[in-house]
Amino acid sequence: MVVRISSGRSEHGEVIEEHMGAQPQPPDLTEIKRRQQRAWASGDYAMFGATLLVISELLCEAVDLRPGQRVLDVATGSGNTALAAARRFCEVTGIDYVPALLERGRERAAAERLEIAFREGDAEDIPFPDASFDVVLSTVGVMFAPDQRKAADELLRVCRPGGRIGLASWTPDSFAAEMPRVFARYAPPPPGLESPSLWGREERARELLGNGIKDFRSVRRSFVFRYRSVGHYLQMLQTHLGPTLESFRSLGAEEKKRLAGEVVDLANRFNRSGDETMVVPSDYLEVVAIRG
Predict the structure, then answer these.
(1) pTM score, whole prediction
(2) What is the pLDDT of the chain when averaged over all its residues?
(3) Where are the domains of the chain?
(4) CA 3 to CA 180: how far, in whole Å?
(5) Confidence at residue 267, expressed as pLDDT on a 0 to 100 scale
(6) Which residues pair with 167 in a beta bridge?
(7) What is the CATH architecture assignment of 29-291?
(8) pLDDT digits (tens, 9 = 90+) for 167-203
(9) How far apart are CA 158 and CA 231, in angstroms?
(10) Other CB atoms within 10 A of residue 188 CB
């Protein structure tokens, strides 16, 4: 998923002034989260996110879902991974802190006649008791939580002992991680905010899950962004993907033009189609961990 947050995926943030000799102030994570919510609620993420569905399907296979298992999809967005789990006859709940995205998830579930409980919830404060789920999943979602340590602790907390945690996160060298760096040149993220793509490094994912797991395995996979053209992809960023849409809205005419040019240049650099279409691979790390 291509995002500024966050991936965040980075999100609009307060510029924190630093005075000579003073210690840098920590980022205001509460305000960052409010800004994230507003950004994701704009546009129509379902139009963009639906193209990523194969990542969710592969993750559900990687964790070896079984019918009847209690599954939580954290930062579900418009429901890709929740839908994939429900297709495997699991008892599925999807949480997100953006109500507008949950409504899209409900619409999609109704269209497929799938039973999924979508409810508002924060990845850093999951609204369920300890050990509530057999499987906890997140597809390029939890990686954009501002407080990475707290989010990881919550994934572990709500997963039962012996249960599985499955994550998909863009790698730091991927196209999807490069794009936020372009946007950051026009709206820098708050100082001290950790990069969402750190979740896409095996050593960082192991560190975040820490001693709460008894088994960990990961594999690097590649998703391919496919659009009619690079211009078509740019249009999606300008009209449907909330965080990038908001970035363009915040700029003057000349800055918008320069930003659009940099987006096109980056996409062209990664593009391997050989024709007028856009075929851009973007690596992500797929993690399956067993709760200790």
Answers:
(1) 0.89
(2) 91
(3) 29-291
(4) 6
(5) 98
(6) 138, 287
(7) 3-Layer(aba) Sandwich (3.40)
(8) 999 999 999 999 999 999 998 887 888 999 999 999 9
(9) 42
(10) 13
